[in-house]
Amino acid sequence: MRGLRVGIDGRMLGPNPRGIARYTTEMCRALDRVLGNAEFFLYARHPVEAPVASSRWHVRVDLSGPGRWLPNTLWLALQAGRVAARDGVDVFWGTTGLLPLVWVPRRTVVTVYDLVYSVAPETASRRSLWSARLFFERSVAKADAVVAISWGTARRLEAKLGRGAIAVAYPGVSPSCRPAANAEVASVKRRYGLSDPYLLSVATREPRKNLATLIRSVAALRREGLIGSRMLVLAGGSGWKDAEIAAEICAAGEWIRELGYVPDEDLAALYSGADAFVFPSLYEGFGMPVLEARACGARVIASDLPELREAGGAEGVYVRPTYEGIREGILRALAMPPPPAIDVTQYSWERGAASLAEVFRDLARGAVLPGERAAAAAA
User: Fold this and answer.
1) Which of 44, 196, 201, 365 gives 20 to 30 Å between its CA and that of 294?
2) pLDDT per residue over 320-345, tens digit each?
3) Which CATH class is domain 5-172+349-378?
4) Residue 264 CB neighbour total at 10 angstroms
């Protein structure tokens, strides 16, 4: 008897994954371990590399006419279901919050990461808003099961669309995220040219991450002599609409270090060596960098959002994401002793994958049916 066949939206997979791509990549690897006899089918318009090198993993690239000329999101909505139907998948997992809307697979699960288009639309690109308004709500309505990445996101989803989440599949923490030895911290600091004590932020350069306000707050603290010679280190790739951030960085001068993308093997040492980790985002669906910073024993300052409190725990310092709020939070955190590092085994990718796998199995055997969604979510 054949095992479970899982179709996966693989469009986001690629090198140096961050955000949704990172979540999808790591969850795929964990699902491979949790569902040892399943087959997985990745669907995309362009060649992607499977997160797992195994005969149970198959990449399906649509080389048809629509696969070549349809825009990415339209391709998923109109064509991906047709491609998946050829493989007879039992369950299709919408990894980007979206699902095929034509030729809908037999059973579907959609993962919801956030509601940026509703909570903070001013921080989203026009393309993202267009995609969310045209396809996200339809995908959530059509899905046989919705899985959120935090309870905060699940509650916002229910308030906005009246749709409960069957389960929450938290992001995990890599085993490499642990307090780094002093020698390792020193080595990484030399590699990136960091000599003075520093505050760290890990985020893509885009409006939602609120980095311009963070830079102004740190600049004022330095001018007033309240944080000594501490630098501000910014790790993360470029995003969109970052002219304001670029202008603040240019005006700041030598005390800011932009590192760009930082590989995982260096991140743990950067977190461990920071005097504090600052994450002043205007909105997040969870906050993976906050969890990583905690795993490395860093002090955490984060915006006071329910989703970030889930990631940051009781030891975090939570602030209004304003100029004054960030200033006060940094000073408060620096006056506190460093917290103990969290037990990363409590935040493994396998735990989230186990929740997701249970939903897959239930749907495949008909245990969770469309008419039972509300009752299942309430339970």
Assistant:
1) 196
2) 999 999 999 999 999 999 999 988 88
3) alpha beta
4) 12
Tens digits of per-residue pLDDT, 26-35?
999 999 999 9
Contact 353, 31 (CB under 8 A): yes
Averaged confidence pLDDT in the chain: 92
Quick check: pTM over 0.85? Answer: yes
For residue 226, is it left (φ>0), alpha (ψ between -120 and 50) or beta? alpha
Share of the chain above pLDDT 70, in %: 96
State the DSSP code for 205.
B
pLDDT given for residue 245 in this prediction: 86
Cβ–Cβ under 8 Å, residues 316 and 299: no
Q: What is the residue type of 143? A: A
Q: Where are the domains of the chain?
A: 5-172+349-378, 182-344
Which of 248, 266, 297, 244 lies closest to 193 in space, CA to CA?
266
Lowest mean pLDDT among 25-39, 128-142, 151-165, 280-294: 128-142
Task: Round to whole Å and give the CA distance between 113 and 94.
Answer: 11
Query: What would the two tokens of residue 339 be?
Result: 């917290």
Looking at the chain, how many residues does it have? 379
Residue type at position 122: E
Tell whether the model's pLDDT for residue 147 goes beyond 60: yes
CATH architecture designation of domain 182-344: 3-Layer(aba) Sandwich (3.40)
Topology alike, domains 5-172+349-378 and 182-344: yes
Chain centre to alpha carbon of residue 226: 33
